Amino acid sequence: MTMLADAGPDEPAASWRIDRLGVVIALLLVVALALPFATFRATRIASGTGLLLHEALPAPAAAAAAAALVAALAGAVTLRRPALRLAAGVLALVALALGVGAAAAFLTPADNPYARIAPGSGFWVGVFAAAMLVTDAMVRLRLGPAGRLIALAMTAALIAALLASGAWSRLSLLAEYRSRADVFWREANTHVILAAGSLAAAVAVGLPLGILAHRVRRLRDPMINVLNVIQTIPSMALFGILIAPLGWIAANVPGAHALGIRGIGMAPAFLALFLYSLLPMVANTIVGLNGVSRAVVDAARGMGLTGLQRLFQVEMPLALPVILTGIRIVLVQNIGLATVAALIGGGGFGVFLFQGLGQTATDLILLGALPPVALAFAAAVVLDAVIEISGRGKP
Amino acid sequence: MIRDTIRPGTILRVLVLVALIAFLVAPERFAGLLAPLTTNNAPPIYNQGSLVDLTLSHLFTVAISTLAAAVVAVSLAVFVTRPAGREFLALSRAVVNIGQTFPPVAVLALSVPAMGFGEAPTRMALFLYGLLPIFENTLVGLSTLPPAVVEAASAMGMTGRQRLLKVELPLAMPLILEGLRLSAVIGLATATIGSTVAAKGLGEVIIAGLLSNNLAFIVQGGVITGVLAVLISDGFQAVARQAAKKSGTRPQTET
Amino acid sequence: MIELSHLTKVYGDIPVVNDVDMTIATGTITVIVGTSGSGKSTLLRMVNRLIEPTEGRVFIEGRDVSHLPAHELRRSIGYAIQNHGLFPHWTVARNIATVPLLLGWDREKVRARVAELMELFQLDHDQFADRYPHELSGGQQQRVGVARAMAARPALLLMDEPFGALDPIIRAKAQADLKAIQRRTGTTILLVTHDMAEAIHLGDRIAVMDGGLLKQYAPAADILARPADAFVDDLIGVVDRPFHYLTLGTVGAAVEPGEADGAPLNADASLYEGLGALLWSGRKAAPVVDAAGRDVGRVSLDSIAERAARPT
Questions:
Q1: What pLDDT is recorded for position B134?
Q2: What is the pLDDT of residues C222-249, one digit of tens each?
Q3: CB nearest C48 (choices: B155, B162, B246)
Q4: What's the CA gap between B105 and B183, in Å, rounded?
């Protein structure tokens, strides 16, 4: 499954008709304009007051933002060329992003440094509608892998620029970040190590296991069945269950404690993520190798390639796209699951998320939830592109 | 992707189910088994609520969210595969693919600001996340039917509705069930985390164990949820296999 | 009588079927033959409106088919296709009963009709009625497909490469069975194929299509004798032409008085079969008997050869 790349054949354009999807998006944008654009809270956890666009921004800025949104709205309904629709969507997103930053600056009272200004429901609905428009346009543009990577890089650059320029600095989310910047990057580091490290371990173990199960048929079903059962166990349950054996090892195996093995913390989280990752790796390796046509394998054998030569020169390269798909599944899944690791003291972005939930601090929840969402999304786009490139010239 | 998953011993499964029920009904009898996991005379059996109640409300939350997700997702998938909804097909596919990269726990956490604490955000998150696999599988099921069969249905003089109800949905059923299975399994897991936002469920037991450093709680909470997930997943697969067998198609279990 | 009038289908700018006029007599088999991309299947599908024509009309017994709701029209027309399109989740009996049930026949009548058709198509009711399509052989699936198409006694049966997926031996039998069943039921059949031999064997009349145009529409003998253009000539095949021709006549028609030795030939065997029998047994002539086994004369290589020559 390649995101944004599987558009169906377009219907031949009938003379002139209103784009029905555009109508839905336009309605959403109207709703967005009618909902509070920003919320004002006197303190970090006080309840907020919603402010409409014209209340949240000085009149000229509010007019400009509204104009941009109305233009995008009109574009969604009337424009047909995907590039133009994309432009309309991007215009709306930029207007929303700049608008919300400006609103934060405008609404922050000079005498109350504890006041928090957060995006309101109108902002989020608007972002959703504009994102739909952009997604639809991208689907219709049918970008190749390179095009999608460039689009992702541009989006990341745009967000980085907004962060660096200080346009968003008055937003509550960033206030939350500033007060714990050190911890944030430490937990980010932990999160990536958990997700990517367990992936690496799963590749190192899963590939050989998959190859083994491909060659030794009778291992296949039992192996897949066991891994299937592990995948089915809820993450919090598995994290919890693993605490027991790891705690025992830490206490009873000499040297284990020195290696960092603990009942609580990163070790059970890492192990759990590793175990979850094995099924997609092993299963996709088997499926990939099974998918290599018999004729090709026979030809390789007929030309005198040894078993290992056949494996590395013929079978593995041909199975690569399917194996990469397994890696994509694992990475996206692990980025999400690593968030849960915080519950057993494993660290990662989940630390903020669960702290936020504990304190009913929305900003802190967002600080913990948005980075893994962004990471998972970026990982999916990048790996989809890699999979597509690796699959070129192969059946 | 891998054909036919596990079928070792239905007997084993029945035994596990019986053991689970026995534990839920009379957990004190198993205290001796869990006692070695505790320290400082901590209680080996969860004592802040009835395990049966927690299990039932956990299952209830998953069941209604998955059911609601199924109704909405199947209807949407049917809509985008009819001529009237065709123009939404490509976008809906892309949205589902993007949506599936969202971690379920993030969806749960993000629905808290919108809905407050308790059962509501958990059910909302389970519902939203549950839509994705069901929609995707129904879509695949409806759009990969053998063309000759669909054409035959039209050519026999079935109306659009008859074709959908008598031919397309029954043939897509194994895949729809697989989507339901995925949703239910993800829902079971996410509902555990729902306990951190005060939804009543088995996560409470695990969290209580984590907070009081009581391994016995963690293990019993974890094992109950794990066993439930495996049994429910197996149940769906068994039903899907039946459905596939009847329709003469191979079960398409995506892993 | 079925009338196709100025029937045209255009995709983009390309006419796939281009201004076709055809009249099909009730109770006959008409075969549309052509290469792939000739528009033959599109033409067939416009009859039951699986494809809506860009221009032109189809009349069945004088009624314009576009005046009926499509699903009602289709219930009155049988349709059988190459990959049979059997509903995999329904039993053989349920598949055959599809259209009668859609038409709201009562249960008993449907049951009787299914039994009747299964007998007609040589499918043992007890053995096959409750089986699912994937439990049948290719030939059995094909027969169920045709039985299903004929279930509601349609006056018209459309068939799109109905024998395409069968191996040669089963195909020959299926063709012979279809011909026999058609003679018995008097159903009007419009059949599409790419195989000229099949067309000559089955068709009372043959329509040759190429590039969306109807090149020639005539009885098989005329097509063989007077191909309209080089394309039709090619489709027949220069080498095969005399042999195709022989499949059209019977031994009985070439009987001459006299006697011959060896095993007798049946008068209703085709001349093609007669020629084969003579050549293989090394005889110049063979005795001929009629259906009752009475001696009616003899047939010789010469008399067969006369009938393989282009008529003047």
A1: 95
A2: 888 888 888 888 888 878 888 888 888 8
A3: B155
A4: 14
**A11, pLDDT greater than 70:** no
- Beta bridge partners, C80, equal C159
Last residue of a domain, one of A139, A158, A176: A176
pLDDT at C311: 73
Q: Which residues pair with C15 in a beta bridge?
A: C10
Whether residue C298 lies within 8 A of chain B, CB to CB, comes out as no
Spell out the residues 6+ positions from residue B99 whose beta carbon is closer than 8 angstroms to its own: B129, B131, B132
Q: Say if the Cβ atoms of B167 and C133 lie within 8 Å.
A: no
CATH number for C249-308: choose from 3.10.580.10, 3.40.50.1100, 3.40.50.150, 3.40.50.920.
3.10.580.10
Query: How confident is residue A5, by pLDDT bands cut at 50, 70 and 90?
Result: very low
Interface of C with B in 202-241 (CB under 8 A): none
Question: Within this chain, do residues A166 and A186 fall inside the same structural domain, yes or no?
Answer: no
A143 plus A242 within the same structural domain = no
Instruction: Give the residue from B156, B161, B167 with the most C CB atoms within 10 Å of its CB, the best one to mutate.
Output: B156
Residue B55 identity: T
**Which chain B residues touch A21 with a CB distance below 8 Å?**
87-88, 91
Q: Is residue A307 located within the same domain as residue A254?
A: yes
pLDDT of residue B8: 56
pLDDT tens digits, one per residue of A335-373: 999 998 888 888 899 999 999 888 888 889 999 999 999
Q: Is A11 within the bounds of a domain? A: no
pLDDT 10s digits, B30-42: 887 887 777 777 7
Fold of C2-237: Rossmann fold (3.40.50)
Q: A194: which 2 tokens?
A: 């958990």
Interchain proximity A244–B215, CB inside 8 Å:
yes
Instruction: Count Cβ–Cβ pairs < 8 Å, chain B vs chain C.
Output: 68
CA distances from A312 to A211, A289, B84 (A): 11, 11, 49
Give the pLDDT confidence score for residue A9 in this predicted structure.
Answer: 39
- Percent over 90 (pLDDT), chain C: 48
Alpha helices by DSSP H, chain A: 20-34, 53-56, 59-78, 82-107, 121-141, 145-165, 172-178, 181-192, 198-215, 217-232, 235-252, 266-291, 294-302, 307-309, 316-337, 350-359, 362-390
Domain residues for the domain of A52 are 20-176
Contact B171 C132 (CB under 8 A): no
Say if A79 is an interface residue toward chain B (CB within 8 Å).
no
Cβ contact (<8 Å) for C72 and B148?
no
- The answer to whether A256 faces chain B, any CB pair under 8 Å, is no
User: Domain count of chain B?
Assistant: 1
Count of other CB atoms within 10 angstroms of residue B223: 19
Residue A174: the pLDDT is: 87
Q: Cβ–Cβ of B193/A136 closer than 8 Å? A: no
Tokens 């919108």 locate to: B114
Write out residues 145-174 of C within 8 Å (CB-CB) of B.
148
* C110/C119 Cα distance (integer angstroms): 14
Whether residues A237 and B206 touch (CB distance < 8 A) is answered with yes
Q: Return the CATH number at B158.
A: 1.10.3720.10
* Residues of chain B neighbouring C52 (CB-CB closer than 8 A): none
For residue B183, what are the domain limits? Answer: 55-246
- Mean pLDDT over A302-306 rounds to 84
Q: For residue A248, give the chain B residue with the closest CA.
A: B37
| pLDDT of C141 higher than 60 | yes
pLDDT at A17: 62
| Domain count along chain A | 2
Instruction: Report the distance separating Cα B130 and Cα B187, nearest Å.
Output: 7
Q: Looking at the structure, do residues A44 and A152 belong to the same domain, yes or no? A: yes
Could you tell me which residue, A242 or C93, shows the higher pLDDT? Answer: C93
| A255 lies in some domain | yes
A91 and A141 co-located in one domain: yes
Which amino acid makes up residue A76? Answer: A
Q: Which of A158, A176, A194 is the last residue of a domain?
A: A176
CA distance, residue B71 to nearest chain A CA (Å): 21
> Rounded to whole angstroms, how far apart are CA atoms B188 and B57?
11
